[in-house]
Amino acid sequence: MDTREEMIVLDAVSKVYNRGRANEVVALREVSLTVAAGEMVCLRGASGSGKSTLLSIIGCIFPPTSGRAIIAGKPLSRLPDRFLTVHRRGHIGFIFQQFNVLPELSVLDNVTLPLLPLGIGPTERRRRGGELLARLAIDHRANFPAGQISGGELQRVAIARALVNDPPIILADEPTAHLDSRLSLEFLEIMSGLKGAGKTIVIASHDQLVTECPALDRTFDVRDGRIDVS
Amino acid sequence: MNSSLEKQLNLLDYALASLWRRKLKNLGVMGVFAAVICLIASFQFLTASLTATAEELLAEAPEIVVQKMSAGRQEALPLGYLSRLEGLHGVRGAVPRIWGYYFNETTGANYTVLAVDPARMPGNSRLLQGIEGSLPAGEGEAVLGSGVAADLELAGRSAFSLFRPDLSLKPFAVTGVFRPGTELLTADLLFTTPAEARDLFAIPDGLVTDLCIYVANPAEIGTVAKKIAALLPDTRVVTRPQISQTYRVIFGWRSGMASICLLAALAAFVILAWDKASGLSVEERREIAILKVLGWQTGDILLLRCWEGLVVAGLAWLIGCTAAWLHVFLLEGALFKPMLLGWSVVRPELHLLPAVTGGDLLLVFALSVVPYLAATVIPAWRAAIIPPDSAVR
Known about the structure:
The complex is a heterodimer of chains A (about 230) and B (about 400).
Chain A: E1 6-17, E2 25-36, E3 40-44, H1 51-58, E4 66-71, E5 74-75, H2 81-91, E6 92-95, H3 107-112, H4 122-135, H5 151-163, E7 169-173, H6 181-196, E8 200-205, H7 208-211, E9 218-223, E10 226-229
Parallel strand pairs in A: 3-8, 3-9, 6-7, 7-8
Antiparallel strand pairs in A: 1-2, 1-4, 4-5, 9-10
Chain B: H1 3-21, H2 23-58, E1 64-70, E2 73-75, E3 77-78, H3 80-86, E4 91-104, E5 109-115, H4 126-129, E6 131-133, E7 141-144, H5 146-151, E8 159-163, E9 169-178, H6 183-186, E10 189-192, H7 194-201, E11 207-208, E12 210-215, H8 221-231, E13 235-239, H9 240-278, H10 282-293, H11 298-329, H12 337-341, H13 358-384, H14 389-392
Parallel strand pairs in B: 5-10, 7-9
Antiparallel strand pairs in B: 1-2, 1-12, 1-13, 3-11, 4-5, 4-12, 6-9, 7-10, 8-9
């Protein structure tokens, strides 16, 4: 039996968009899953299967319509938006499909964006950002505009930004969709390293390179808003 | 440093960078806004300056002026009235004066001709203290203001002639000029003796245009004026505070009318600002969604937007007010001076005194920056509540 702390607990979670309206969509139907601290899991599913909605609930972007969601020890149901945000910035690091960096900002400024509303001064921001960029071997690009660096470098900027608050949970949404196989493997290698450092990692993907990654502890198949464990 | 203050500095820093990233759009908005503020501030400054200039000019004026009225119009006043005022309690001195305007058809300029007996003027008169040369005393003698001297193109000569009403020439000899620094009072002035002025304007002996009354106690100007009005019922008694108040009302009324017109322009700009702030581009929506996913609160985005608005409006206010100051005090309010002063061609030029108070600046701030911020706060809030999941999808 796994005795590690339960980092993500979803119990009969459902999500309905536009509830009660003509355009009502049921995105998740009574999904239950548990992810322990330090686990690396994959949400596998086709486009529109509910992966992103599931990731959004785990990422504290919105609460479920029904069911129980406990993320890093905090129950999300009926939590107001501002508390969700505070919980998210303390516990969740996001890596987006298209990296979602701001192209006009420098690499370093992109990485330290989550620190601005925390009232952390420029010296400390530079120190933290610089350390992460060095760890990911792109510190030589720190002052480049993010729009002028390569896809592989962008991916590492996105990872550095996800880690800058030192969150226990890393969520990645289709992180290899725009990468070639070499960069995809490189990404998985970094994720494995983070797993080794104790981070809980959830990757939503239908890329075979990801779903067959040996570092994964489990893979959840998401179909029509329901989940199967494989 | 306090983390709340650090957070505000971080947001301000980000707001400046964000404005710079969209510099063309923001510079355009700021430019139009600064132009509107410049127009409004110009009126405000010009009004304040004209009022201050009028006050400065009036400081040299007698406390009370008595003019004879007939059929509602001013006419020459008999010198005999003087003896009836001399014993009046509270009157320090009464000086007969001839003054009027001489229009020089050759140059198109108006001169102010002033004639009093210097010996009867108050000892502290800045007018008499500001003369380089000697006071006019003999036949045809005059002291000229710098504007009149330049207009007559004397070029070293000390003699010139003006036309009497019957078009005969009246020769004058220049005995002095008013010193630089007194232009405000003297630029368009030709100062001479009552006899010479009478000759120039063909005013009969024993008549003057008005009487200047100097009062011992300035607090009693109103009381003394009432006594004079009762004593000389066919006269108009004008006090210095009344003239000052009239200037204020005229400048204030004209400025107010013009400001109302300009406020329409400001309202149009505020509507434009509202429209601009509510119409977010795809990039802006995406940026807000990303920031929110990264842990920015709705309040943080709102603060960011407010900082952006404050920077744009504050800079526009600063630029607008500076441009207005330059317009009013370097260019003599060229755009609006005719509207506030009237359109008659009066030369030499009146030089305005810089007189801008904190109250004027605050008024312009309240009329421009505050409506702009108000117009951008609601769109800013609407921008801030964009659901963050749009960045994830």
